[in-house]
Design goal:
By secondary structure, the protein is of the alpha+beta class. It has four domains: about 120 residues, Beta-Lactamase, CATH 3.30.450; about 170 residues, GAF domain (Beta-Lactamase, 2-Layer Sandwich), CATH 3.30.450; about 120 residues, Beta-Lactamase; about 170 residues, Histidine kinase-like ATPase, C-terminal domain (Heat Shock Protein 90), CATH 3.30.565.10. The protein is built from 20 helices and 31 strands. The strands form seven sheets. Strands 1, 2, 3, 4, 5, 6, 7 and 12 form an eight-stranded antiparallel β-sheet that branches. A hairpin with a 3-residue loop joins strand 28 and strand 29. Helix 6 packs antiparallel against helix 9, helix 15 packs antiparallel against helix 16 and helix 19 runs antiparallel to helix 20. The relative contact order is 0.07. Its EC number is 2.7.13.3. It comes from Flavobacterium nitrogenifigens. Keywords: Chromophore, Kinase, Phosphoprotein, Photoreceptor protein, Receptor, Sensory transduction, Transferase. GO terms for molecular function: phosphorelay sensor kinase activity; photoreceptor activity. It catalyses: ATP + protein L-histidine = ADP + protein N-phospho-L-histidine.
């Protein structure tokens, strides 16, 4: 029978320590021995050091029945243990083998029972003592609220229970870089608390083993590995030691610990949501082993942490999360008008930044950018959105390191973190965070964690603090912040949809109003064409017919009078047609507005009307008028009609006087909604009118007085109404019979606002 060892000797040929097959080293630590037994109870694997325990060599054991070497009673006892509830339990099997007492851990590996035996501890701690310490720890644990406090307590408790010189709670980040999150150590030792270590210190396959096997001991870091031998009956025969207690440690890791001056270690895995969250790493600066009871007690310390991670992290974040929740509730409960202008109100609310603790935010809607706080330029925001859309990232995108995704945009910007949400219809919302420059203390240069030379791979031998300055990234977005932003993005999306639907409804309503008004105008135009235009035409026809019938007897004076009457009727027809043409030329839409100085408009109007004003001996007084958004020639037409109307209906009992006043600052106009406006008031001392005509006076062809007393088509004030509608404003009239008339104009400060349907 041929026998060979299964020692893995390929480590020196590795180019990366993550390729190291640490689960099949073919060796164990020497504080125990290992047997690999087949399902037929033949000894198929055996460590070289069995002779030191029994005086029987490994070559004598291999290939033999277990009972032939250790007796059938021992085999039956082990068989009962493997078939019982205690198999793979926390407590090893206590058994006598060839006259010596051992503690045995058993697990299966590829159809092989792996027996790992250590001599039974003579002065081991009693279970009751470990239980007492655990109860005391639980009592103290319940007094902690934060995860950091709990980890600090676990570090202290683990050190008290196990007696190691240093106990660290080691926490991983998303890339498995580690941080010493909590620590308890001898007073004479330099603390490692807060130090960071690169992910290469614990490579991927080591992390995988920590998940499979949650407790690992190195009793003496300077141990001589014991090789495992097997019956050489097939090619490539090996033994997977992933679940082994005695498994020999990677020589790279051993050298790493030796460089740190460590003599013995205990490592307990902290597994959270099936992921390696961290480790309890215990260091001793001389040899050290633990009894099964203390191993169990130490393992329980790790389970205390993992069972509390969600709760304690929730407690840690609870205050901030509550603030975020409150901000979200306040923001979504704002009473907003269903108008595009509501975005301005939203931006003014401090809760828009508080819901995700952002420094700035921008809402992009209808190609307009609304901003608050620390934000990029409009050009950068537009470029960022174009890049996000081009890369088809999706409706939601979050990062605290924008430079990794959009380097060209991030390198010249004042922000490093963004949270982006699409709002549909080419609308977007983006929250921003500035760069947070961070200083990280590493336990040695992370770029020199592994060195390769002619003898193979080696860990770094310097653990001096190496400071790293991290730039181009913001603080990390917490999950509760992301959740709050998502919820509000949905609410804002719904608000924008309501605005769009409301505007469509308003559009159709306005069109209906315009159609109704247009039909009314057409009816009035039809009436004036059949009445007012026909009346002077009938006069012309009557006069000319009479002249023709009396052509031989009519006097020159009579002809002159008749022709004068014809001329007046024709002039009236011409004026009426000209007014109708002016009225119909004013479009029911918003032209491109410009800033119009009403002082210049008034000056030009008075200059044009100077002869009429002089003829009526009228007095016109005015104060400073505002600048408004409008169309210059329409504003002049507006002023002409109002002043002409005042002069036309002047009182014969007094000198005509027109006083023009205006608001010097914008005022709030309470109409269908609040709009900031400027007002201009024309007050005359004319004949006035009854208040019941305040509205009807602006209807086309409306005359409150007979044609015999006051000439005119009745279009003047209707023309003024239409001009004010065109500029999005409004016009009102107030009259008192015998005292005068006030005409008040309202001009919106924002050209996007409107006071009337247009």
């Amino acid at each position: 029978m041929k026998i060979r060892d299964i020692v893995n000797r390929d480590i020196v040929n590795l180019s990366n320590c993550e390729h190291e097959p640490i689960h099949i080293p073919g060796k164990i630590q020497p504080h125990g021995f290992l047997l690999g037994i087949t399902m037929q109870w033949k000894i198929d694997f055996c460590t070289e050091n069995v002779a030191t325990y029994f005086g029987i060599s490994h070559t004598q054991m291999l290939g033999k029945d277990f009972s032939a070497v250790f007796g059938s009673e021992a085999q039956d006892e082990i068989l009962a243990y493997t078939n019982g509830d205690e198999f793979r339990d926390a407590f090893p099997l206590e058994i006598e083998l060839l006259g010596r007492l051992f503690q045995i851990n058993i697990h299966k590996s590829d159809g092989i029972y792996v027996l790992e035996a250590e001599l039974l501890f003579v002065d081991r701690e009693k279970l009751a003592d470990a239980y007492k310490q655990t109860i005391q720890f639980v009592s103290q644990m319940n007094k902690t609220t934060s995860l950091k406090d709990l980890c600090a307590l676990v570090a202290q408790g683990t050190r008290e229970i196990t007696g190691y010189d240093r106990v660290m709670i080691y926490r991983f980040d998303e890339q498995y870089n580690g941080e010493v999150f909590a620590e308890d150590c001898r007073e004479d030792l330099e603390p490692f608390l807060g130090l960071h270590y690169p992910h290469t210190d614990i490579p991927a396959q080591a992390r995988e083993l920590y998940i499979k096997n949650q407790l690992r001991l190195i009793v003496d870091i300077n141990y001589e590995p014991v090789p495992i031998y097997t019956v050489d009956d097939k090619e490539g025969k090996n033994l997977d030691l992933s679940l082994s207690i005695l498994r020999s440690t990677s020589p790279i890791h051993v050298e790493y610990l030796q460089n740190m001056g460590v003599g013995a270690t205990l490592t307990i895995s902290l597994i959270h949501h099936d992921r390696l969250w961290g480790l309890i790493a215990c260091h001793h600066y001389s040899e050290k082993n633990l009894s099964p009871e203390l191993r169990l007690a130490a393992k329980l310390q790790g389970q205390f942490i993992t069972s509390q991670i969600d709760l304690r992290q929730s407690n840690d974040e609870n205050i901030s999360a509550q603030k975020t929740t409150l901000a979200l509730e306040q923001l979504t409960s704002l009473e907003l008008p269903i108008l595009q202008e509501s975005l301005e109100t939203i931006l003014k609310a401090p809760q828009l930044l508080e819901i995700c603790n952002a420094a700035g935010v921008s809402i992009i809607s209808r190609n307009k950018i609304y901003k608050r706080g620390l934000t990029p330029s409009d050009e950068d925001i537009t470029a960022l959105i174009e890049e996000i859309i081009a890369k088809e990232i999706g409706e939601v995108f979050t990062t605290n390191k924008l430079i990794d995704h959009f380097p060209e945009i991030a390198q010249d910007s004042n922000f490093a973190g963004i949270m982006y949400h699409s709002l549909g219809n080419n609308d977007h919302i983006i929250w921003f965070r500035p760069e947070t420059v961070t200083e990280i203390n590493w336990g040695g240069d992370p770029e020199k964690s592994i060195v390769k030379d002619s003898n193979g791979l080696h860990p770094r031998n310097s653990f001096n603090i190496w400071k790293q300055i991290v730039k181009n990234q913001s603080s990390t977005w917490k999950q509760y912040e992301i959740n709050a932003a998502v919820q509000y993005a949905h609410a804002l999306h719904n608000q924008l949809i309501l605005i769009m639907l409301s505007e469509e409804e308003e559009k159709y309503r306005n069109q209906s109003e315009i159609l109704k008004e247009t039909n009314s105008e057409l009816e009035n135009i039809n009436w004036i064409s059949t009445h007012d235009l026909q009346e002077p035409l009938r006069k012309i026809q009557l006069i000319t017919s009479k002249m023709l019938s009396e052509i031989n007897v009519i006097s020159t004076e009579s002809i002159s009078n008749s022709l004068e009457k014809v001329s007046k009727s024709a002039y009236r027809m011409s004026g009426l047609l000209e007014d109708i043409l002016k009225y119909t030329r004013i479009k029911n839409n918003r032209e491109t507005f410009q800033e119009v100085d009403l002082n210049e408009i008034l000056e030009a109007t008075l200059k044009e009307m100077s002869e009429v004003i002089l003829e009526n001996k009228a007095i016109i007084e005015s104060e400073k008028l505002p600048e408004v958004h409008g169309i210059g020639f329409l504003m002049k037409q507006l002023f002409l009609n109002i002043i002409q109307n005042s002069l036309k209906y002047a009182s014969p009992d007094r000198t005509p006087k027109i006083t023009i006043t205006a608001s010097q600052e914008a005022v709030m106009m309470h109409h269908l909604f609040k709009v900031h406006c400027h007002w201009v008031r024309f007050s005359d001392n004319g004949i006035g009118f009854e208040s019941e005509y305040n509205e009807s006076i602006f209807k086309i062809f409306t005359r409150l007085h007979t044609q015999e007393h006051y000439t005119g088509s009745g279009i003047g004030l209707a023309l003024c109404k239409k001009i004010m509608q065109t500029v999005g404003g409004d016009i009102y009239a107030e009259g008192k019979p015998g005292e005068g008339t006030d005409i008040i104009l309202y001009f919106p400060c924002d050209p996007a606002d409107t006071l009337l349907p247009i």
